[in-house]
Amino acid sequence: MNKIPKSYLADAEREGLTQSEIYLAESQAAGDAGDEETAWAWLRYADLPAYSLMTMKRVLGADFVREQNFLCIGEANRAYGENWLDE
Question: Which of 7, 8, 53, 60 is deepest in the core (most CB within 10 A)?
């Protein structure tokens, strides 16, 4: 089971946001605080569109995407095929 990353947002900053928006805001706040590891940890939970993951693959590499273990990988699998990271 995955441990929830350190939070950088106050409760008031979460109000009115969807769960995925909270993950994105947490990621941004962690990055702003200079905590890159936690920023990526929060981002793995967000509902990222398939094209975002494809861009990460092209820029950062397939191994990076695999290591991050993004939870929204299913959308990219449907859009690009099950082996998109290997192509």
Answer: 53
